[in-house]
Specification:
Pfam families: tRNA_U5-meth_tr (PF05958). It is built from ten helices and 22 strands. It is α/β, with parallel strands linked by helices. The structure holds S-adenosylmethionine.
Length: 433
C-alpha cells in the first residue's frame, strides 16, 4: 500500500463556502483545509480531489490566527454538525455578512449594504434530524461525522435546546428494545409548544409490542405524539398520540404534521419575521394583499396577516392542511392554497394583484418562479427569504436585470457554528424615494 503523502506547509488565504481554510497549492490550484483560518500557517496532508482543487487534512497549526477560539463542544472535530467552533464569534459573524455581500455582488448588486447578522445563541435549536444506527445490538444516536456516513454517538449537544438533549439517553434505552429498529433509521425531533414531537424513520414495521413501548415512552417523557415512517417513505403513522400537538406562529396555534419544517430556532424565526415585516411597502392600503410563496405552516403568513390579507401558497399536502386548518380559526385574513410552484408557478398577472410577494423557497431556490416575478409590472416589493446564498445570487440576478433595486439585506445565523447562511433580502421597484 502506498504511504500517505508527507504534510506540506500552507498559508491560508480565505475561507471557502463550506468554511474550510483555502490555500494555494504548488500547482496554483486551491487546497481546502478544514479547521484552518485565514492568516494561519498550517501543515496539511492532501487526501484527495475536491472540485477544481484538492482536499487536505490539518496535521499541525504552525501559526494560529488571533481569530481562533477554543471549541466548546467535546465532539468538535468528530461530529459533522458545528464545524466552525474554532472561530471567535465576531469574525465568524463578519464572515457570514461578507458571504451575503459577495453573493449579492455576483448578482449585480456590488454596493448592497448588508446588516450585521443576528447570531442565535447556543441551546436554542428546536429541530433535529438525528441519525440512528444499531452497532452490535446497541443503538447509536447522533449526527453524521464530517464527510462520512458514520454516525457520531452523542450524549450532549451544545446547539440543541436542552429539552431535546434530555431525550438522547432515554431514546437510546428505548430503541434497544424496539424491534422495528433493525440496523438504521433516523429520529426527527421538533420542539413544539406542546412538547417534543418525534418522527421515527425505521427499517422495520412496528409490531404490537413496539406500539406499547412507544406509547409508554411518550407518556413517560412528555411527548404528545410519536409517529413512525419507513426509511424512505413519505407517509407516517401516529403510533402514539397521548395529547394534542401545537405551536404558535404569529400568535396563531398550528398543529404541524410529524417532522414538519420549522425555522431552526425561535430567535431565528423572530429575526426573519422582523426583517420580512420591515421590508413591506411603507403604505399598504386596506385592500392590499400579500402573497407568501413556499409558506410551509404559515410562519410568515400569520405575522404578515397583521398588515394585510395574505394568500399563502404551499406545495406539501401536510403543511398546507395544517396551515389551512389554522387559518380558518384565525380571523380569515390568511387563505391557504395548495400549489406546486415548480410545475405551476404564479404568472406575472397573478403576481401583480399583490402589493408584495414574500418567498421562502427550499435550498434549490426558486428557478421556476423567479423569471415570472421579474416580469411583473405593478408589484411593489419582493422579499426573498433564503437558506442558500448560491441560489439567492442566481435568482437575484434576474431581478437585477429586470431593474429591481436592492432595498435591504439581513443575514440570519440560525445554524450557529456552521457554514449555513440564511438571509432576508428586500427588492423594490425603481429608484429610492
Ligand atoms: C424553507 S421552507 C419555508 C417554509 C415557511 N416559509 C417557514 O418559514 O416556515 C420551504 C417550503 O417550500 C415548500 N416547497 C418546496 N418545494 C415547493 C414547490 N415546488 N411548490 C410549493 N412549495 C414548495 C416546502 O414544502 C416548504 O414548506
Amino acid at each position: 500500500m502506498p504511504l500517505p503523502p508527507e504534510p506540506t506547509e500552507y498559508d491560508i488565504a480565505r475561507l471557502g463556502a463550506a468554511g474550510d481554510g483555502v490555500a494555494q497549492g504548488a500547482d496554483g490550484r486551491p487546497v481546502f483545509i478544514p479547521y484552518a483560518l485565514p492568516g494561519e500557517r498550517v501543515a496539511a496532508r492532501v487526501t484527495g480531489k475536491l472540485g477544481e482543487g484538492q482536499a487536505a487534512e490539518l496535521t499541525a497549526l504552525l501559526r494560529p490566527a488571533p481569530e481562533r477560539a477554543e471549541p466548546p463542544c467535546p465532539y468538535f472535530g468528530r461530529c459533522g454538525g458545528c464545524t466552525m467552533q474554532h472561530m471567535a464569534i465576531p469574525p465568524y459573524a463578519e464572515w457570514k455578512r461578507a458571504r451575503l455581500a459577495e453573493a449579492l455582488s455576483r448578482a449585480g448588486y456590488p454596493d448592497a449594504v448588508v446588516a450585521e447578522p443576528a447570531v442565535t445563541p447556543p441551546q436554542t435549536r428546536r429541530r433535529a434530524d438525528l441519525a440512528l444506527r444499531r452497532a452490535d445490538g446497541v443503538p447509536v444516536l447522533g449526527f453524521h461525522a464530517r464527510g462520512s456516513g458514520a454516525v457520531v454517538d452523542l450524549d450532549t449537544c451544545l446547539v440543541l435546546d436542552p429539552a431535546l438533549v434530555a431525550l438522547f439517553q432515554p431514546l437510546k434505552t428505548m430503541l434497544r428494545s424496539l424491534a422495528a429498529f433493525r440496523r438504521e433509521g433516523s429520529a426527527v425531533l421538533n420542539l413544539l409548544d406542546s412538547g417534543p414531537d418525534l418522527l421515527l424513520r425505521l427499517d422495520g414495521i412496528p409490531n404490537v409490542a413496539d406500539r406499547a413501548l412507544l406509547a409508554d415512552f411518550a407518556r413517560a417523557h412528555g411527548l404528545p405524539r410519536i409517529a413512525c415512517a419507513p426509511l424512505k417513505g413519505m407517509v407516517s403513522e401516529n403510533v402514539a398520540q397521548v395529547g394534542a400537538v401545537s405551536i404558535a406562529l404569529g400568535g396563531v396555534s398550528v398543529a404541524p404534521a410529524p417532522g414538519a419544517f420549522l425555522q431552526a430556532t425561535p430567535q431565528g424565526e423572530a429575526a426573519i419575521v422582523a426583517a420580512v415585516l420591515a421590508g413591506l411597502p411603507p403604505k399598504l392600503t386596506g385592500k392590499a394583499r400579500i402573497a407568501d410563496l413556499y409558506a410551509g405552516l404559515g410562519t410568515l403568513s400569520f405575522p404578515l396577516s397583521a398588515r394585510a390579507r395574505v394568500t399563502a401558497y404551499e406545495g406539501a399536502p401536510d403543511a398546507v392542511a395544517a396551515l389551512d386548518a389554522a387559518a380558518r380559526h384565525s380571523g380569515g385574513k390568511v387563505q391557504a392554497v395548495r400549489r406546486d410552484l415548480s410545475r405551476q408557478p404564479l404568472m406575472p398577472k397573478e403576481l401583480d394583484a399583490f402589493a408584495a410577494v414574500v418567498l421562502d423557497p427550499p435550498f434549490a431556490g426558486a428557478a421556476d418562479q423567479m423569471p415570472l416575478l421579474a416580469r411583473t409590472t405593478k408589484l411593489e416589493r419582493i422579499i426573498y427569504v433564503s437558506c442558500n446564498p448560491a441560489a439567492l445570487g442566481r435568482d437575484a440576478k434576474l431581478l437585477q436585470a429586470a431593474g429591481w433595486r436592492l432595498a435591504s439585506a439581513t443575514p440570519v445565523d440560525q445554524f450557529l457554528w456552521s457554514a449555513q447562511l440564511e438571509a432576508v433580502v428586500v427588492f423594490a421597484r425603481g429608484r429610492k424615494a
